[in-house]
Amino acid sequence: MLGAVAAGKTTVRGFLAAEDCLATRDALAALGVRIELDERGTLTVWGRGADGLRQAARPLDFGNSGTGIRLMMGLLAGQPFASELTGDESLRRRPMERVAAPLRAMGASIETTNGNAPVRVRGGALHAIDYELPVASAQIKSALLLAALRATGRTTIKSPGPSRDHTERMLDTMGVRVEADPDRHIVSVEGPANLSATAIDVPGDLSSAAFFIVGACLAAEQGLLIRNVGVNPTRTGVLTILERMGADIERRNPRNLGAEPVADLYIRKSALKGLLVPKELVPLAIDEFPILFIAAAGAAGRTIVGGAGELRLKETDRIAAMARALAAVGAAVEERADGLVIEGGPLSGGVVESHGDHRIAMAFAVASVLSTGRIEIRNTDQVATSFPDFVDVAGAAGLRVELRRRGDAS
């Protein structure tokens, strides 16, 4: 997205050709941006500059990508034309007003469909705002930062807690001055601001690695090495939580890949113990909770997660869906309004409904290492939204995962 409105050619090495990323690429192409992906996985974006996007001839379809649609709302809020943004059935159930409302306060004309997608954005002249986020959300913050690039004045965003800072780091890399106060969770940008094209190396995704990190904690007798994983401190809540549960995780060869810290992770099978998860760690691991719930099922004692009501607003209601799925495979689980209580112990196997949620599907593939019986996971097509090679990687890591097509089985 940033490369599309930068001046010059941006190259992205390590691009993940998953459905979410490809949907964003296709949306930008519909807005007139030339983008090419080569056989080595390098993406080249010929930027059109701050005002170079053009009105698309069709609605922009983001599939299952909540990040894509929300960030694009911010990017298009300052463009002088109208756009319609939509997605699949799951995405059309997810809340959009939390982004639309502050963008309206900046001067954008935005209509949602009963608070959801499709979203219609009529961009135009924007002005800066001071805004306090209702929740610690990198998506909302990033959407406002993208809008702030075309706004007149200083936009300041305050969060009730920490959230991912990838957008701030990338803006800085591309020549935009970002002022941040991490202790007070405040970030500011002076607009209008122009971006300069650059070369970007994308680290391995910690959210994707988390499935194999937990699997290794539960079953890797000989240890498992995962190379080149991004360990941005605003993303490592999953590692902190696992380490507090007793996980043996070693960070090797720490280094920087551009603006992002990376390391190789070596994980050994560990005697995990139940944990009362500190609420301040929840926003730093919000996407990893499906697999963290599996870690809890394999830990000795009780794990309590609270303050995680945001999980009910993901691809599905992850609190309710994980509670039902864990119970279906024999776990002792209690659903609460803002989290789960899980008693560790062996799983018996059974049939799990993922509700088309990629992270739930992958989490229960890993849960098979705890199970005395077969786990069948239904509606797994959406795994390709974030991790199209999951089955192959899982097999290479030692998991026995069999994929069947509709009509044969799940």
Description:
The chain is an alpha/beta fold and 410 residues long. It folds into two domains: 199 residues, UDP-n-acetylglucosamine1-carboxyvinyl-transferase, Chain, CATH 3.65.10.10; 192 residues, Alpha-beta prism (UDP-n-acetylglucosamine1-carboxyvinyl-transferase, Chain). It has eleven helices and 22 strands. Strands 1, 2, 3, 13 and 14 form a five-stranded mixed β-sheet that branches. Strands 8, 9, 10, 11 and 12 form a five-stranded mixed β-sheet that branches. α2 runs parallel beside α4, α3 packs parallel to α4 and α8 runs parallel beside α10. The radius of gyration is 21 Å and the shape is globular. The two termini are 35 Å apart. The mean pLDDT is 95.
In short:
The chain has 410 residues and is an alpha/beta fold. The protein has helices spanning 19-30, 66-76, 97-105, 138-148, 166-173, 206-219, 237-244, 289-297, 318-328, 358-366, 390-397; strands at residues 6-13, 34-37, 43-48, 60-61, 82-86, 109-113, 116-122, 126-127, 130-132, 151-158, 178-181, 186-191, 195-196, 199-201, 224-230, 248-257, 260-268, 302-305, 332-336, 339-343, 350-353, 375-378.
Layout of strands and helices, then pairs:
Elements: E1 6-13, H1 19-30, E2 34-37, E3 43-48, E4 60-61, H2 66-76, E5 82-86, H3 97-105, E6 109-113, E7 116-122, E8 126-127, E9 130-132, H4 138-148, E10 151-158, H5 166-173, E11 178-181, E12 186-191, E13 195-196, E14 199-201, H6 206-219, E15 224-230, H7 237-244, E16 248-257, E17 260-268, H8 289-297, E18 302-305, H9 318-328, E19 332-336, E20 339-343, E21 350-353, H10 358-366, E22 375-378, H11 390-397
Parallel strand pairs: 1-13, 1-14, 4-5, 8-10, 9-10, 21-22
Antiparallel strand pairs: 1-3, 2-3, 5-7, 6-7, 10-12, 11-12, 15-17, 16-17, 18-20, 19-20
Helix pairs in contact: 1-2, 2-4, 3-4, 6-8, 8-10
